[in-house]
Design goal:
- The complex is a heterodimer of chains A (238) and B (290).
- Chain A is of the alpha/beta class.
- Chain A has a single domain, classed as P-loop containing nucleotide triphosphate hydrolases (Rossmann fold), CATH 3.40.50.
- Chain A contains 9 helices and 10 strands.
- In chain A, a hairpin with a 2-residue loop joins strand 9 and strand 10.
- The longest helix of chain A is centred in the last third of the chain and has 16 residues.
- Chain B has a single domain, classed as ABC transporter involved in vitamin B12 uptake, BtuC (Orthogonal Bundle).
- Chain B is built from 11 helices and 2 strands.
- In chain B, strands 1-2 form a two-stranded antiparallel sheet.
- In chain B, a hairpin with a 2-residue loop joins strand 1 and strand 2.
- In chain B, helix 1 packs across helix 9 and helix 1 packs antiparallel against helix 10.
- Classes of the chains: A alpha/beta (238), B mainly alpha (290).
- At the A-B interface, helix 2 and helix 3 of A face helix 6 and helix 7 of B.
- The structure holds adenosine-5'-triphosphate (ATP) and magnesium ion (MG).
- Chain A: InterPro entries: AAA+_ATPase, ABC_transporter-like_ATP-bd, ABC_transporter-like_CS, BCAA_Transport_ATP-bd_LivF, P-loop_NTPase.
């Protein structure tokens, strides 16, 4: 596929410790690619490497066939890749509006940024009302909404979400997954790391499962036959 | 009563200069998490640069301050990546490495000053020297008033930059989280280097004003490093807004001690106060970041 975001044979880690061993992932444009796996299996590490927060020790990362391995973090937005870190990564001392403006920082066009923000925020009534509230005093769910809306201001080709449902109530988890489907409907490609497989699996177009820094499974949701099958992959089967 | 009023005015005027001296230091701490021991060194070098500019080129310090600002902006911008590199190195305790590194810079500056200008105090003359403005019982040296106004202008400029520009938004984001700012497209290294440059420019400019009011010698460095630490701790480390109050507080404290107790006790009392503040309110009295 021409415009896909690909990771080929990625090896990386922290300090001298190798955490991710030879992982390959491909995310087609406009689709939802989910990465599951137990705690500490290297999910966040892989997307941090894609975003340029961590150097790749070896392997290649490409966007639409163009190599982007090793590019500095701040250049990723203009390549069309935005990452939402685990926890959302909103700026606590900035208001909701200031956070959204930060989302458009790379555009460097005040008017365009304001237009985009107004059209985005129309979909988020909760944020509408709290425009001038510092993000640090919002609930976890509201912060996540700010983070998701903020990721869209530059109109990216790909958004990487690291556990958007973490710490949310079941109703909010459901709403978050609907938002993620909303991203896909806008034509945005999504790479989503999730723990909540039950809610995330139904929206996934393709599924990867990591364990111990290795890729244990790659396929579609139909390939996962049932819970037992899933458990066996988690426990290190195939 | 007249003496009290006069001292109040003196304290406020000096306080304004201390604000300009510390505000960049606070910004550097808030953004780069570096406690720059060389802060007094930049003050001193600003003073000596103005001394050279007036003795060698005849440029009045109230004009040359803008040249000093530009010069130290570039010097700091050039040194910034090095500071950033030390601060973000993968070695254990890069915070202490950075402190030691800036201490080294400070010693280097002091040695350089001794070598270039010897131990004698140098005074920086201005056309405003010896002119006064009388307001009822209070006499205001025009030089101090102009110095105060310039210091406020520079500080105000920093606030406008921080709160009204795209660059300022990047700086404030950076002060909250480097990685998250990077993910938004902020070139963290570059912005950090400029922050260091802005800091050295502001501090050296304050140094011009201080050298013009008093004089400059190689031992002023340590004095103003201590003053900057005092203001920063009182304000709450990294708090740029708090500097406004803390700088004035130090100016007033120093002025009243000098008038009513004796100038030679000022450092003693200033640091006695600092220890009390640290005991009572270890996070600073005014708290919080940019
Ligand atoms: N900054 C870091 N420095 C050193 N080791 C780290 C760092 N971040 C993560 N690790 C280690 O790397 C491994 C993988 O971490 P990673 O965050 O990628 O896991 P994850 O799959 O995202 O887990 P979780 O579901 O808990 O978020 C873990 O063993 C973790 O301890
Ligand atoms: Mg994680």
């Amino acid at each position: 596929m021409s415009n896909e975001l690909r990771v080929d044979n990625l090896v990386t880690g922290y300090g001298k410790q190798e955490i991710v061993h030879d992982i390959t992932v491909s995310a087609p444009p406009g689709q939802i690619t989910c990465i599951f796996g137990p705690n500490g299996s290297g999910k966040s590490t892989v997307i941090k490497a894609i975003a340029g927060l961590l150097p790749a020790w070896s392997g290649r990362i490409t966007l639409g066939g163009t190599e982007i391995t090793g590019l500095p973090v701040h250049t990723m937005v203009s390549k069309g890749i935005v990452m939402m870190p685990q926890g959302g990564g909103v700026f606590p001392r900035f208001t909701v509006m200031e956070n959204l403006r930060m989302g458009g920082y790379a555009l460097n066009n005040k008017q365009l940024i304001e237009e985009r923000i107004e059209s985005l925020i129309a979909d988020y009534p909760n944020l509408q009302r709290r425009r001038n509230t510092p993000a640090g005093s919002l609930s976890g769910g509201e912060q996540m909404m700010v983070a998701i809306a903020r990721a869209l201001v530059t109109d990216p080709a790909f958004v990487m979400l690291d556990e958007p449902s973490a710490g949310l109530s079941p109703a909010l988890v459901h709403e978050t997954m609907e938002r993620v489907v909303g991203l896909k409907e806008r034509g945005v490609g999504v790479i989503m790391v999730e723990q909540n497989i039950r809610e995330a699996l139904p929206v996934a177009d393709s599924v990867y499962i990591f364990a111990g820094g290795k890729r244990k499974f790659a396929g579609t949701q139909e390939d996962i036959r049932d819970d037992n099958h899933l458990m066996s992959i988690y426990m290190g089967g195939t | 009563m007249d003496l009290f009023l006069q001292t109040l005015v003196n304290g406020i005027l000096i306080g304004g200069i201390l604000i300009c001296l510390t505000i960049g230091f606070q910004l550097t701490f808030g953004v780069l998490h570096v406690i720059d021991f060389a802060v007094g060194g930049w003050t001193m070098l600003g003073g000596y640069t103005a001394y050279w500019l007036v003795t060698l080129a005849g440029i009045d310090p109230f004009i040359s301050i803008f040249l000093v600002f530009a010069l130290f902006l570039l010097i700091g911008r050039g040194l910034g990546p090095l500071i950033y590199h030390v601060r973000t190195s993968r070695y254990a305790r890069p915070d202490l490495m950075a402190l030691a590194f800036t201490f080294g810079i400070f010693l280097f500056m002091r040695g350089g000053a001794l070598w270039l200008w010897s131990y004698n105090s140098r005074s920086v003359d201005s056309v405003l020297s010896g002119q006064f403005l009388s307001l009822g019982p209070v006499t205001i040296p025009l030089m101090r008033l102009s110095a105060f106004l310039l210091a406020m202008l520079f500080s105000l400029g920093l606030f406008i930059l921080l709160y009204r520009s795209r660059f300022g938004m990047a700086v404030r984001a950076l002060a909250q989280n480097h990685d998250h700012a990077g993910l938004m497209g902020v070139d963290v290294k570059r912005v950090s280097a400029w922050v260091y440059g802005i800091y050295t420019a502001l501090t050296a400019s304050a140094g011009v004003l201080i050298a013009t009011i008093y004089s400059v010698n190689p031992s002023v460095g340590i004095r103003y490093t201590l003053f900057a630490f005092f203001v920063a701790v009182l304000a709450g480390l990294g708090s740029v807004g708090g500097v406004l109050v803390a700088g004035l507080a130090l100016g007033l404290l120093e002025a009243y001690v000098a008038t009513y107790i004796g100038a030679r006790y000022s450092l003693l009392i200033v640091f006695g106060t600092l220890y009390l503040v640290l005991l009572v309110a270890p996070k600073g009295v005014l708290g919080r970041g940019i």
